[in-house]
Amino acid sequence: MTEPVQRPAMIRNPLLRYSVIGAGWLSVILGVIGIFLPVLPTTPFLLLAAACFVRTSPRFYEWLVSHPRLGRYLVYYLNGEGMPLKAKVYTLILMWSMLLLTAFVLVDRAMLHYLLPAIGVGVTVYILRLPTLRLPPE
Question: What is the predicted pLDDT for the residue at 6?
Fold first, then answer.
């Protein structure tokens, strides 16, 4: 029998707690905007929001992971089930487009010509190693 996953300790300092809650809601807003704007990734912002809420507000965390539109992909990832193939492809295309645009068009620093693609390789390996989730047809 497996033991239940323990949640991290709640943040007790009121100033820090409200700051983290604010960061969580900002992440939710950016994640929702990312649904409509292809330059903003949705899932990383929602994962950040979940991380903020799990330490500050069980009510907000439960709302986010049980949300009919937003929560589905979070729960799959958090349970270790992986990412759908469509989400992997979309994420990698957008990430590489933005990294290469930034490294070679928008920024004129030689260090970033190497650093940003190196970060991209690391993130790509991580995403490709995640299990590919097969979603049932809607």
Answer: 62
